Structures are given as C-alpha cells and as structure tokens.
C-alpha cells in the first residue's frame, strides 16, 4: 500500500513537472499595432491627421498593450489552476481584445477620396443594400440615426447574418465586437462613435462626424468582405 502511494505521488509529481515544462515551452501569442494603409492626413478634411494619429498610436495601442497583459495574466492563472483569476480577467480581455478587433476593422473601412473613399458599393453588396434597406441613402440614414442615438461610447455596424444571408444594422456598447450580438454576425463595416474618434475636430456634435465619415468610406473593402462571407449572392 505504501509502495503504491509512493508511486502515485511520483507519477503525479512527474505529470505536474511535465505540465510545467509544456507551459514554459509554449509561446504566448502577442498582438501588435497594425500599420494604417494610408497616411494620418490622408482622410482630411473628413477626419484630421491629429485625430488619426492619436486614435491609432495612443488609443489602439493602449488596447493592444492591455490585451497582451491580460492574456499573459490569463496564461499564468490557467497554469496555476487559479479559476478565480481566470474569471476575473474575462472583462479586461473582452474590452481590450474587442478594442483591438474593432479598430483593426475600422482602419480598413476607411480610404482616402483619391483611392476610392466614398465611392458607393457596386455589384452584390450594392444589390444587397438595396434589397435590405431600399437604398444606400436609406442605410446611411439608419446608421447615422442609430450611431447618434447610442448613449455613451460604442460602435454602429453594418453586419451580415451568415445564417439568414441578410444585412442588418446593429450597435454595440463600449468595445464589444459585433459577434457579441450573435455568433452568426459578421461585420461588413463599423463606425467608431467613441468621443476619441471625433471630439478634437467635431467637439460634441457626433451627427456631423457621422455625416462626413461616409465621404471616406471604403466600400471596395466592404464589398470584398461581403463577397467572401456571402459568395452565392
């Protein structure tokens, strides 16, 4: 009996040691700030160079820094079997991870006018917008109204429900990604309505920011996302 107990302890100790080695050998995925596909001043006059630089270098970078930190803490907590800390870290991961996900989408949703920014969508996405909303103008009006009415900070999205193949307009609070509204929802484009996205230029007049951002909307990229997610349309 004593021998069996000793062997069991040795087996457990060995397993624990191997688990620790695996944890040490496993490289933790970290995230970094993506480059913008245009210069900071390329979206003027719709969005100023000062706003773009602060938004990208300060705000997006802060989300990434805090996301990486939370993931490192989560990795340690899992390795230690600290369930309480794992649960506690979920809000920081959702907020900062969402900030990284959302902003990475947002930069691609914009393009300088000289590179096609503001040109209306064509082909399948254009037809889908007409079918779901009546017209592009009706969609813009709906997104602007919901974006302006969103209390506090958040995002307004044009999304695709990959199950029903329907387009829809949704808002999310804080840095919640669109997927938090439904697992089958994919963002076609999103607009950041946090004050840091517009306040230096538009002060507290969010509707003016929402009106002007359509002049630099990258519908070409939105169409590529739509056709990838909904190839039969």
UniProtKB/TrEMBL annotation:
Superkingdom per UniProt: Eukaryota
Subcellular location per the Swiss-Prot or TrEMBL entry: Mitochondrion matrix
Domain Manganese/iron superoxide dismutase C-terminal: 122-224
Cofactor requirements of the protein: Mn(2+)
A GO term, aspect molecular function: manganese ion binding
SUPFAM superfamilies registered for this protein in UniProt: Fe,Mn superoxide dismutase (SOD), C-terminal domain, Fe,Mn superoxide dismutase (SOD), N-terminal domain
GO cellular component terms, semicolon-separated: mitochondrial matrix
Keyword field: Manganese, Metal-binding, Mitochondrion, Oxidoreductase
Assigned EC number: 1.15.1.1
Binding site for Mn(2+): 55, 103, 192, 196
InterPro entries with a match to the protein in the record: Fe/Mn_Superoxide_Dismutase, Mn/Fe_SOD, Mn/Fe_SOD_BS, Mn/Fe_SOD_C, Mn/Fe_SOD_N, Mn/Fe_SOD_N_sf, SOD_C_sf
Reaction catalyzed: 2 superoxide + 2 H(+) = H2O2 + O2
UniProt key word Manganese: yes
Limits of the Manganese/iron superoxide dismutase N-terminal domain: 30-111
Pfam entry (one): Sod_Fe_N
Role summary: Destroys radicals which are normally produced within the cells and which are toxic to biological systems. Destroys superoxide anion radicals which are normally produced within the cells and which are toxic to biological systems.
Family per similarity comment: Belongs to the iron/manganese superoxide dismutase family.
Oligomer and partners: Homotetramer.
Designated name of the protein: Superoxide dismutase
